[in-house]
Amino acid sequence: MAQYDVIIIGGGPGGYNAAIRAGQLGLKVACVDKGIDGGGVLGGTCLNVGCMPSKALLHASEMYDAAANHFAELGIEVTPKLNLAQMMAQKQVSVGQLTKGIEFLFKKNKVDWVKGAGRIAGAGKVEVTGADGAITALEAKNIVIATGSLPAGLPGVEVDQKRIVDSTGALSLTEVPKSLLVIGAGIIGLELGSVWRRLGAQVTVVEFLDRITPGMDAEVAKTFQRSLTKQGMVFKLSSKVTGAKASKTGVSLSVEPVAGGAAETLEADYVLLAIGRKPYTEGLGLETVGITPDKRGFIPTDHWKTSAPGVWAIGDVTLGPMLAHKAEDEAVACIETIAGKAGHVAYGLIPSVVYTTPEVAWVGKTEEELKAEGRAYKAGKFPFTANSRARINHETEGFVKILADATTDEILGAHLIGPHVSEMIGEYCVAMEFRAASEDVARTCHPHPTRSEALRQAAMGVEGWTMQA
Predict the structure, then answer these.
(1) Three-class SS of residue 154?
(2) DSSP 157-202
(3) What is the pLDDT of residues 238-256, one digit of tens each?
């Protein structure tokens, strides 16, 4: 029986980063992973059927839309032709390169990749069932659960990956739908809905709540919805889906108002179910070490420790935002704790991003949260219409909003909607990690002309001395 210091179950962003960090710290480590649907590739949902392929399609569809609708104003005259098969093929090539990159990093850091489905079989024991059914027994001082999550289901809506798809199926459609119904106005639904809208589909988003993107600053969310509506997406808010019936050629979706009233039937070529994700803990053998998930299936933890000695959990199987970078942070902190170091995750400073056009990114408190806390704050805001680089590049949609403590000026939240803001939010993550004041950013030289100047101008606005708007 192979002996290890750490066995990690799951090879996604949490699992593979945990394995690499363990190897760097000199721990003998194995990562148990069967691959998506038993496919035998590392990277989990994120690399294979989530973050990375969706960004490949977002980028490609943005290029297509730019060529079709915006190149002419720049003096570039082309008539683009969509080759969907090639668009999907280039996506898979990129994904394959990334998964092979993880294999290289495992070898570099002396991580044993044990292929198969891992199951805890008692204290310090893991059984791995390979694709051929053979079982391998492993032992370790520490076991880290990093099995991630799955798309959440909805009663009355059966995903068949043909006409009714989840996020995985929406990444591999073989045709552009004439019409697409998206159930859920969260990040996944809006990103994938925007891909198919740009490629030519009529997209309608059905959302149970009276707003899109819960958790996002309300002012930003309203601006975001207006932008997506202008692009052609239709929103049916405060609407409850009660059933879906698929045929060979389309789907009928039954929808009724949340507040009560007459039901209606919506027809579309395809339906995308995107109402969130649920932790993946089925068949893990948690009962063999006395671990009981909560009502929603999450594994309770205290600094990544579960109720079972020597068993840890990170990423989407634990409470908190279901984000790859949250899992990565927890992976490092968990392994460093196991190694006797001081692991730490600043949960209040984990950024969120929506990779649509425009992009949305935020970190820290929203205005609604600060008001609910009764905390006095000041806000600084700067529009991209007044940013030189954004203006020159015809990317003027959106703004930057900074929230700071009214007394100490400590930055409490940053909310960005506009061009490439996913690449800019990190500046405020760093500033807030060091508990910077808005004045610290306001008095930091930024290169001109760049979109990042909007970050500085918004910080200036906290104290009322924005100079370029």
Answers:
(1) strand
(2) B---SSSEE-HHHHTS-SS--SEEEEE--SHHHHHHHHHHHHTT-E
(3) 999 999 999 999 999 999 9
DSSP type of residue 349: G
Cα 74 to chain centroid distance, Å, stands at 33
CA 169 to chain centre: 17
Rounded Cα distance between 123 and 142, Å, is 9
Q: Write out pLDDT tens, residues 342-357.
A: 999 999 999 999 999 9
> Do residues 60 and 91 lie in contact, with contact meaning Cβ atoms separated by under 8 Å?
yes
Query: Are the C-beta atoms of residues 452 and 431 closer than 8 Å to each other?
Result: no
- Is 420 an active-site residue? no
pLDDT of residue 1: 82
Q: Give 12's DSSP letter.
A: S
Question: Do residues 102 and 11 touch, judged by C-beta distance below 8 A?
Answer: yes
Cα(412)–Cα(362) distance, integer angstroms: 11
Report the distance separating Cα 270 and Cα 360, nearest Å. Answer: 26
In sequence order, which residues have a C-beta less than 8 Å from that of residue 89 and are 6 or more positions away?
none
Residue 157's nearest CA partner among 236, 239, 246, 262 is: 246
Domains in the chain (CATH in brackets) are 2-151+278-348 (3.50.50.60), 164-275 (3.50.50.60), 358-462 (3.30.390.30)
SS3 percent helix, strand, coil of the chain, rounded to 5, is: 35, 25, 40
Q: Are strands 411-418 and 399-405 parallel, antiparallel or unpaired?
A: antiparallel
